[in-house]
Amino acid sequence: MSVKDKDAYTRLNFLHQAAHLILNQCPNNQALVRFYCHTQRSIAKRLVLRHDPSVKRTICKRCSALLVPGISCTIRQRKKNRPVTVIRCVTCGLTKRFENRRDYQVWSEHSEAQLQHQTLTKEPVAPQTSCDVSQTSKQTETPRDTVVQS
Ligand SMILES: [Zn+2]
């Protein structure tokens, strides 16, 4: 990631957090939230940066509202042919549908996407000699209290 991209991602992060904060503290100020999310989307579009799907799914495609269940969107489970989650934007009424499949992976989680990314960067992997990488998983066994019900 280049320095320019790092700055841009920092700004995107700030805008997303600011939108969440405004929506939390004064839910009536939807215009400011939409402005933040719209700015966030336009920056990402201009610099061709990809949002993580977890972030992308919280922004309405039509009106750029921040979709938080119970405040600015509704979530319903529907089942006609296949079970789907329907997210409806309260502001503009646009609906998103996501299939409820246990084995579903977004593209960024696919192993093929990771391989493609590795071949594109073409950076030689420097052997790490400075620090020992052998990370032992710290699994301390917590003693489980046995509750005896009398
Ligand atoms: Zn909307």
UniProtKB/TrEMBL annotation:
Keywords: Metal-binding, tRNA processing, Zinc. The lineage of its organism: Eukaryota, Metazoa, Chordata, Craniata, Vertebrata. This is Ribonuclease P protein subunit p21-like protein. Residues 117-150 are annotated as: Disordered. GO terms for molecular function: metal ion binding. It comes from the Eukaryota. The keyword Transcription regulation does not apply. It comes from Callorhinchus milii (Ghost shark). InterPro entries: Rpr2/Snm1/Rpp21. GO terms for biological process: tRNA processing. Residues 117-140 have a biased composition (Polar residues). GO terms for cellular component: nucleolar ribonuclease P complex. Belongs to the eukaryotic/archaeal RNase P protein component 4 family.
